[in-house]
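Hi R.,

Here's the chain you asked about this morning:
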Amino acid sequence: MAAKVLMVQGTASHVGKSVIVTALCRHFKNQGYRVAPFKAQNMSNNSFSTPDGKEIGRAQAEQARACGIEPSVFMNPVLLKPSTDKMCQVVVMGKPVAELSAMEFQKYKKNLVKIVRSALDRLMQENDCVVIEGAGSPAEINLKKGDIVNMAVAKMVQSPVILVGDIDKGGVFAQLVGTYQILQPEEKRLVKAFLINKFRGDRKILDPGLRWIEKKTGKKILGVIPFIPNLRIAQEDSVILEESHNGHKNDQSKILVEVVRFPRISNFTDFESLSKEPDVQIRYIDRPPRHSLPDLLILPGTKSTMADLEFLKASGLAHYLKRCVRAEVPLVGICGGYQMLGERLLDPHHLESKTNESEGLGLVPSITVFEKKKRVAQVKAVHVESGIEIEGYEIHMGCTQGRNGQKPLFKIVERHGMAIEDYDGISETSVFGTYIHGLFDNAEFRRYFLDQVRQRSGLSTIPQAENKKIAGSPNPYDALSHVLEKNIDKNFLEKILCSR
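And here is the predicted structure, written out as tokens:
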């Protein structure tokens, strides 16, 4: 018997589709369904390694966790990773296949329809329920032709659709009704309900508007989801960086963590676990702050290391980084940020730029050579200094070698599920570099590292009892599902699910 399907589409990007899908996945799992997420095409530099060493969007990996299953390429068969404003790396079934412009990809998409359908069919065969996520908006007229992610997918399997609008942006009634009116008759029939997301205030004030929408469109409101502060679910769109973490340090008991906001930043979800710590304040920077130094400085991953290295130099941030290092502020480079810490970056195949070589920051004695083969792997490792075990993942093109036998940051003990003995990164005084993403998601290591930073800054460490209290916080997926269930018509949701 074919699985039940349900699709979540939105009036725009960053209206909360990924979070709503995550909540629905957990809800249906808790109802006893075997459930899996699906997004035909994702555009994001926040990616994740599957257990078999392939690459998918981080949001689908998060949704898989909410389902209680391992992430797989069938959940996100097409991933676009922007490298410039006009070019992106195209990843198909977890492997990079091309570097294309937007116009070139529009022509290329016709080759992907069968792949998308095959991946979705596979999930429908293996599960009781598949929750499908759209991208952007189904009403983007210029992208309707050749669509492989929104209404084209809904029509492919005749999936009922829930249309989500973000009331926090303002104009939610125009968002929902306008999007609905632009749809074709067949597409309108697939839309079964509207969902309003990120509401703040008294629901009673909203009720007249909800009745107007229902009368105007003939479609019901499934529910109104409140704005959820301190959401402990990984966010996908980099627009989230524009909306938070930009204040000055106003609590001297907190660690100030500055993360360089590269133009092509990737995997910024590496720092979401840090931002949830009660003694941490994160600030994203794209120019040197004038009057203060942080307690911890981070160079994140990037989709274009060479180009963002030039950004560091042109913006003055390179000098700022060196000033911080002279002041013994701990500096952590992850993936592309790690590569920049070294003396030279070599690109003999012109994978990153048209130049053969760039001068690095010279903060550690290492050289990086960019290679054609991308390493994508889940790993288990041991922090050399503390002996703490961590889990994470590698996604990078390039090999970094130290010159003088530097102390590694991690000893890798497992890659692709196989026991190995390998070493990763550099640990040199106050400068650290690693290729391992997700290291701060490991609670014991995160707390150890933050306490080291606190001691360097003259702050007391967090008591163990408080650490245990933090570690004992409710499961974020169950907490999210609970919010959803409290604010929707659950009987109507089940009816929509069974309407196919």
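One quick note: The chain has 17 helices and 28 strands.

Cheers,
M.
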